[in-house]
């Protein structure tokens, strides 16, 4: 369990890459979507270790799984920063490069976290999968009758505001073209407004919102992205 500055405790799994892996000195900080918990995503983390070659820290937001508290945007961002700071301070990982990975809601969390910390030289890459422009712009697609009530949504998650401010960190965009929850146009628009000098678009033709990860070439695309990052460990 990892304590937060505001008194919550977060469940987390750290899975160490074997010393034989070529990216053993890179740690991926994973942020999951709204559904499920980190336990459901352990097989994904193990694939990252086996194919990408990095270690993985999976963090559970407050109010999810075994973590304490109740989730809201402010609290989740405290959790994300806590996870990032944990990697920077932990003896085993403080000298590692860090890649942030976020799927769906986790993508919104990741974008804000990277925007805030992009000047940290240990932060070398961001991977986004099936995330949205903002919660208010997503609601009309998910619940069309609620399109006139979006102004009442207090969880804003304005990724389209934060993303253009990221100018120091390479970004990989992984988009399931059959996403039935977040319209693929959201990912395409995020890619278009991205100001990072290194941005890569990876379409996943058969991928829907939660199964894009099983598309052929998914993990290989992440591995190639990480392999080409400018890390101090080569």
List the helices and strands and how they pair.
Layout lengths: L1 E2 L5 E2 L1 E4 L10 E6 L10 H11 L2 E5 L13 H17 L7 E7 L1 H13 L5 E7 L5 H8 L16 H4 L8 E6 L7 H10 L5 E6 L13 H10 L7
Helix pairs in contact: 1-7, 2-3
Could you characterize the architecture of this molecule?
Helix content is 31%, strand content 19%. It is an alpha/beta fold. The chain has one domain: Alpha/Beta hydrolase fold, catalytic domain (Rossmann fold, 3-Layer(aba) Sandwich), CATH 3.40.50.1820. The strands form two sheets. Strands 3-5-4-6-7-8-9 form a seven-stranded mixed β-sheet, with helices on both faces. A two-stranded antiparallel sheet has the order 1-2. α1 (42-52) packs across α7. GO terms for molecular function: palmitoyl-(protein) hydrolase activity. Residues 27-147 form the Serine aminopeptidase S33 domain. InterPro entries: AB_hydrolase_fold (IPR029058), Hydrolase_4 (IPR022742).
Which radius of gyration do the C-alpha atoms yield? 17 Å
Let me know the CATH homologous superfamily: Alpha/Beta hydrolase fold, catalytic domain
Strand content: 15-25%
Distance between the termini: 32 Å
Question: What structural class results from the helix and strand content?
Answer: alpha/beta
Instruction: Outline the biggest β-sheet.
Output: 7 strands, mixed
Integer count of domains: 1
Mean pLDDT: 89
Protein name: Serine aminopeptidase S33 domain-containing protein
InterPro entries: AB_hydrolase_fold (IPR029058), Hydrolase_4 (IPR022742)
Domain Serine aminopeptidase S33: 27-147
GO molecular function, one term: palmitoyl-(protein) hydrolase activity
